[in-house]
Amino acid sequence: MGLFDSYEDMRRGVMGSIPKHIAGVRCDVKNCVYHDGDNYCTAERIAVGTTFAQNSTETVCATFKPRASL
Q1: Residue that wins the pLDDT comparison between 18 and 7
Q2: Would you say residue 6 lies in a domain?
């Protein structure tokens, strides 16, 4: 990678391809396999629960999968 290569080109070189993120969905959970490193989710779809949440602290991302430890 040269000095003037774009960020996307660097990610392609490291990751093989740029994962698509879900438009409008931000994620701060850096230890999830779907976290793209830029606070976006790359899962094909997400599931959020619980069924009877009264506020955001009572919700969870059911799609979360922990990233393997290095």
Answers
A1: 18
A2: no
Give whole-number Cα distances, 31 to 5, 15, 23, 46, in Å: 27, 17, 20, 16
Q: Is residue 9 part of a domain?
A: no
Residue 30 lies in a domain: yes
Asked whether residue 23 is assigned to any structural domain, the reply reads yes
- For the stretch 13-62, pLDDT in tens is 445 566 688 888 889 999 999 998 899 999 988 998 888 989 989 999 98
Read off the pTM. 0.62
Amino acid letter, 6:
S
Q: What gap in Å lies between CA 21 and CA 38, rounded to an integer?
A: 10
Whether the CA torsion 51, 58, 33, 3 is positive or negative: it is positive
| Domain encompassing residue 28 | 17-70
